[in-house]
Amino acid sequence: MNGPIVVGTDGSETAAVAVAEAIKIAKAFDQPLHIVFAFHPQGVNTRDLPPEFADAVQSDSNIQAVLDDVAARARASGVKTESHAVTGDAADAILGVAETIDAGLIVVGNKGINSVRRYVLGNIPSKVVHHSPCSTYVVHTT
């Protein structure tokens, strides 16, 4: 496997499972790890959103804390990292970073494949797999 590895995270426990797998792969293949956190800009009123969508809105400090935590874990394993905070849809953010850096692999968790959100917004793993510019590893996280 040649080329950087891209992994998405939102700081959740299920994302942590995918991140851990991405770190292992990056270390095994001596490739850099690009960590992507997609978010919607502040100013969105979460009070008017259904509960299953409210978690999509994150604060800037939380985003940076999640990215810093993942990068620290990867570096502790000897993996070079780069973090990307990207506004917009998570799948589009992951795909965009992968295309920009000419990724060799995208690692994504399977969360959302059977969720209610999927029928309204689509799901991240499915969209990434169908539009990926490189190989994709879907980690069983749920």
Structural overview:
Strands 3-2-1-4-5 form a five-stranded parallel sheet, with helices on both faces. The protein is α/β, with parallel strands linked by helices. It is 45% helix and 20% strand.
Task: Give the averaged pLDDT, no decimals.
Answer: 85
Report the span from N to C terminus: 26 Å
- Across the major sheet, the strand order is 3-2-1-4-5
Can you count the beta strands?
5
- Give unreliable regions as ranges: 113-121
**Beta-strand content estimate:** 15-25%
Furnish the topology, listing elements before pairings.
Elements: E1 5-8, H1 13-29, E2 33-39, H2 51-54, H3 60-76, E3 81-87, H4 90-101, E4 105-109, H5 116-121, H6 124-131, E5 135-139
Parallel strand pairs: 1-2, 1-4, 2-3, 4-5
Helix pairs in contact: 4-6
Question: Quick gist of this model?
Answer:
This protein has 6 helices and 5 strands, in the order βαβααβαβααβ.
List keywords for this structure.
single chain; globular; five-stranded parallel beta sheet; alpha/beta; 142 residues; 5 strands
